[in-house]
Amino acid sequence: MPAPLSLVRAVQPGGFARWVGAEVLALVAPPRCAACGEALGAAAERLCGDCRAELPWLRGARCPRCALPAPCGTCPAARAAFARAWAPVAHAGPARALVAQLKFQGVLAAADLMAAQIAAGAPAALLDDATLVPVPTHPARRRARGFDPAERLARALARRAGRPLSRCLRRRGPPARQVGAPRALRRAPGRVEVVARAPAPLRVALVDDVHTTGATLDACARALRRAGTAEVVALTYARALRRAGQRLVG
Ligand SMILES: [Zn+2]
Ligand SMILES: [Zn+2]
Q: Which of 14, 44, 45, 155 keeps 20 to 30 A from 168, CA to CA?
């Protein structure tokens, strides 16, 4: 499939070569598990048996605001600009590996599998009437990678859920790394600078691979609300869970 002109223009030579390489490899290589890379017997499958069995589904009751298992205690999304959040799996085990395959390798099979699991389980109210908006990657990082992981996931979800997609958000400022940044800085308002093109869609479901602190989702939701969106919800593939002694980042 020829690359769309906009994509050719949008990526650096190095990123484009990597993107073409990954696409060609996907056509000629034998099917492999999208999480662990193990060779698969049947081309129709996306995950090996072990990874399928170990997917950390979030099955119990959950807080509708922050998507953590209920009760969430002091809800981290109590003052968030998004009204609801949901994810099918915890950010652990094969789910974490799938996220890494999408984020760092751009594996399309991983994006489609993640989208299928979101579409199959998401509460209908979160997708009804919603325009899907990917959480934007910083332009510098997008150029370096040659693709945008959240956009790949959002496109796959738009196809599966039959919802429109809008890339109406844009990152501004330096490409701040959330991982490793001091806690105070990560949580400081304005740390993640996002702007929305107006008029923004009336109902928006933000799409990202992982929901960690929710700071990035909140920055996106605030930008959308400023640009006219009436309601914002957040759909992510994985939810990072809080554990004693462990800090959430991102
Ligand atoms: Zn596997
Ligand atoms: Zn909560």
A: 14
Question: Per residue in 66-86, pLDDT tens?
Answer: 999 999 999 999 999 999 999
Q: Which residues contact 128 (CB under 8 A, 6 or more apart)?
A: none
- Using the mean position of ligand 2's atoms as its centre, give its distance from the Cα of residue 84 in Å: 9
Query: In this model, does residue 132 exceed pLDDT 90?
Result: yes
Specify whether the CB–CB gap between 146 and 16 falls below 8 A: yes
The ligand with the least distance to the CA atom of 84 is 2
Residue among 113, 109, 114, 129 nearest 27 (CA): 109
Q: Is 215 in contact with 187 (CB distance < 8 Å)?
A: yes
Over residues 87-107, the pLDDT tens digits come to 999 999 999 999 999 988 888
**Which ligand number lies closest to the CA of residue 74?**
2
The ligand with the least distance to the CA atom of 73 is 2
Which amino acid, 45?
E
What spacing in Å lies between the alpha carbon of 42 and ligand 1's midpoint? 13
Number of C-beta neighbours around residue 114 at 10 A: 30
Q: Residue ranges of the domains in the chain? A: 55-239
The yes or no reply on domain 55-239 and CATH 2.60.40 is no
Tell me the per-residue pLDDT of 201-228, one tens digit each, with 9 for 90 and over. Answer: 999 999 999 999 999 999 999 999 999 9
